[in-house]
Amino acid sequence: xxxxxxVRPDLLEVVKAELGAPWMEGAPFxxxxxxxxxxxxxxxxxxxxxxxxxxxxxxxxxxxAPSRKFISEYFTFNARDDKIATGRLYxxxxxxxxxxxxxxxxxxxxxxxxEKKGTRCTVQPAKGxxxxxxxxxxxxxxxxxxxxxxxxTIITTTPNxxxxxxxxxxxPALLPRDAWADWLNPKTSVADLQDLLRxxxxxxxxVMVGRPKPSGxxxxxxx
Length: 223
What we know:
Layout: E1 5-7, H1 11-19, E2 32-35, E3 40-47, E4 50-58, H2 69-74, E5 78-80, H3 91-96, E6 98-103, E7 105-110, E8 119-125, E9 131-141, E10 148-157, H4 161-164, E11 171-172, H5 177-184, H6 190-196, E12 205-209
Parallel strand pairs: 4-10, 5-10
Antiparallel strand pairs: 1-2, 1-7, 3-4, 3-6, 6-9, 7-8, 8-12, 9-10, 10-11
């Protein structure tokens, strides 16, 4: 399970340069070293055939969700790759509403067998840049405030050796550059989509004990 991610100030330019996705006009961009479910996270989807980056509430909410508490009650900030194609909640967005969730890092807790207390670790790209996760999105209107939100979930898959050794039994589904277009393409078959969801090579990841310090102007730690 991935329940905390982080976004650094340089992500905006990396997303534009590497994914060809400009930031949606008028949408704020607030880098945060700690993003939790129900917070906003950057993601990219196709709008009128073009890649556009913007904020998404982290945690998928179906249109009939009564409140954002649905996210924590049903853990919809993650979606298992082995259940999304046929499940009632994710079947349709998996076929019709996919996105790329873009982050600078994510957090795991290393807790070897027999240890009472775990150690928080930071997982970041071994060669710099950002992580691009397979995701799904959906629109939601808060029935109390009538405010519109785009919501998104991060798909998880079986772990590679680096994450399994922490130990953890799931990890975000990282997509390589040559998979981004197929993931966003509405014509990609379910079988081909499922084939893209696999453990990332170990050499993509660098695991650091502890948490990083804010590194840029305007970068928040939480909240």
